[in-house]
Structure formats: C-alpha cells, structure tokens
Amino acid sequence: MESGQSRTASTVATKCHLAFVLQCVFVERDVVLNIRLPSKTKKALRMAAIDDDRTMSGMVAKVLKDWLAAQGYLGRVASLSKKRTRK
What we know:
- The protein is mainly alpha-helical.
- It is about 70% helix and about 0% strand.
C-alpha cells in the first residue's frame, strides 16, 4: 500500500470519529421511582408496552406524562421551577 493511501484512510477514519463525537449529547439523568402494582396490572402493562414497542418503564413514563399533561400538572411544575430559580 502506498503511503498516500494509508494517509487517506487515516484521514477518513479520523473524520468518522470526529463526526461521532460531535453527535454526542449530554442528557439529564432520569430519577428512579419504585412502585408496587397488582399482578394483573403488571401483565396488562407488559402487553401494552410490547404492543407500543416500548419497555415497561418507558410505557409507565409515557402514560404518566400524558396524564399529567392532560390534567395540567406538567405546566404547573415548569412554572414552579421558574419561580424557585428566580429567588
């Protein structure tokens, strides 16, 4: 292999690596919540999660988020957070 070819391959590998690094995003870590459920509820949750192509944890998070948004709680939390940071 010519030295020009290996330099080109090295450059391509470096560009690919840099593209990967630039795509990394830091996400705030989620908190953990342990809950107890009746057995039938857990089985229904598992079926719903499979049907929606989610984990059971992801399904619980989606259902809770949707309900909290529909009830107006998510907006309240956002406004409370802003009030607390202003003080």
